[in-house]
Write a structure and sequence with these properties.
Layout (H helix, E strand, L loop, with lengths): L1 H33 L1 H4 L1 H8 L3 H29 L1 H21 L3 H29 L5 H52 L24 H32 L3 H26 L5 H21 L4 H29 L5 H28 L4 H21 L7 H8 L3
Helix pairs in contact: 1-5, 1-6, 1-7, 4-5, 4-6, 4-12, 5-6, 5-7, 6-12, 6-14, 7-9, 7-11, 8-9, 8-11, 8-12, 8-13, 9-11, 10-11, 10-13, 11-12
Length: about 400
């Protein structure tokens, strides 16, 4: 009798693990391909005969397109189905890079940036819709953490992989090879049976309860995501130059501190998954971690720490920043109306796009005015605002939402 009951449970566990692996692989691809163009800037500059301003414009186009299309793609995910949209995004991003390699020109660089931005807007709404529908509720936080970790890992290995490809097959070959990863992974997802989620109507005709998606909670969470992006972008993008110019740190010391910060953040994401599964007060978890984080970053802003203490402070700050990521995602899931995970994550993820547009200008202005300490000071201020919003948006899961999501996942 025990074996009879255990078999379906084991089958569900195996299916959940396969789904998590496939969705996380797609997320790895998205973060990897986001960095292909920046890693090839020296090659593109030489081949296209343009300056870094023109190359930077391509990244701006990418960010703007991704920001404008992420919320609409969330609606499409919920109405058409997440699997179809995710597979389309993987193929579209691959096509963009392959065509740039085959037709190397500045016009195609901008066109590629547009297509990459559109493809990038697919991943969060589609990925989270599938995970919300198919992961065990008791392990949802860990599923979100592994998904986020896979994205971080894709970005972490991109420089080394692209450099190796350039060495082996040249810049054009690197574009084509990096692009081919997308369609190949899409085929893998189809072959291994990636499940669907998020369609407005089930195949048996049962309709999803319809509720307004533009709620005060999701609007507040969009601001929350924007502040999260602003609080980390300054340190990630300008931390090294700020430490060198404002604190007298050597390049190796500053680079070591930033490496510790980013590496610890990746580890913190995994730890945060276990924490998120053990509480329903995800806003309080995020607020507590970021309150301590703000204090550490304020200390860095105010005091020129010795190298070892600086590395320790940056490591702790990075770890705590990573810990909140699964709780952050659970806050969005809890605020999403039943059957609307794609739309909810599509809307709030635009906050990261907003911060991606604003942070280079803000922190570049700070550095241009020779105020390196304010790179950390402004980051701490954004963290404090994030703490307040995390407490304001803390809420328990909506009744019946998990049941509806699971029903939507049925074939």
């Amino acid at each position: 009798m025990v074996d009879v009951l255990a078999a379906p449970q084991q089958a569900r566990a195996d299916a959940s693990l396969r789904t998590l692996t496939l969705v996380s692989t797609a997320h790895w691809v998205s973060h990897f391909q986001m960095l292909v163009l920046p890693m090839l800037f020296p090659f593109l500059k030489q081949q296209l005969g343009v300056g870094y301003i023109e190359l930077g414009l391509a990244l701006t186009v990418f960010a703007v397109v991704s920001g404008l299309t992420q919320a609409p793609l969330g609606y499409i995910v919920d109405h058409v189905g997440a699997r179809r949209i995710l597979l389309t995004g993987l193929c579209l991003a691959g096509f963009a890079l392959i065509m740039l390699g085959l037709h190397l020109s500045y016009a195609w660089l901008i066109a590629s940036a547009v297509l990459l931005g559109l493809a990038n807007s697919v991943y969060h709404p589609a990925d989270y819709a599938i995970l919300s529908a198919h992961m065990d509720e008791a392990r949802m936080g860990r599923a979100f953490s592994i998904h986020t970790f896979a994205g971080f890992l894709g970005g972490a290995v991109a420089p080394a992989v692209v450099a190796a490809l350039v060495t082996m097959v040249g810049g054009v070959g690197a574009l084509i090879a990096a692009g081919a990863v997308g369609p190949l992974v899409a085929l893998l997802l189809v072959a291994l049976g990636l499940p669907d989620a998020g369609a407005t109507h089930r195949q048996d005709g049962v309709k999803v309860p319809q509720k307004s998606i533009i709620t005060p909670a999701l609007i507040t969470l969009t601001i929350f995501f924007t502040l999260l992006g602003l609080s980390s972008a300054g340190i990630g993008n300008f931390g090294v130059v700020a430490l060198m110019s404002g604190y007298g740190a050597s390049f190796p010391t500053a680079n070591m501190a930033l490496t510790a910060y980013l590496g610890a953040s990746t580890v913190g994401v995994l730890a945060g998954g276990f924490l998120a599964d053990r509480t329903e007060r995800h806003g309080q978890v995020a607020a507590g971690c970021f309150a301590v984080n703000a204090a550490i970053v304020l200390l860095i802003a105010a005091v020129a720490l010795p190298p070892l203490l600086l590395a320790a402070a940056m490591t702790t700050a990075g770890f705590l920043g990573g810990v909140i990521a699964p709780s952050r995602d659970m806050m969005v899931r809890n605020a999403a109306p039943p059957g609307a995970a794609g739309r909810a994550f599509g809307i709030v993820s635009t906050g990261f796009n907003f911060s991606g547009m604003a942070s280079p200008l803000l922190f570049g202005w700070i550095m241009d005015h020779n105020m390196p300490h304010w790179v950390f000071g402004a980051s701490a201020a954004f963290m404090i605002l994030t703490v307040l919003l995390a407490l304001f948006t803390d809420r328990k899961p909506q009744t019946g939402r998990a049941t509806v999501d699971m029903e939507l996942a049925q074939p």
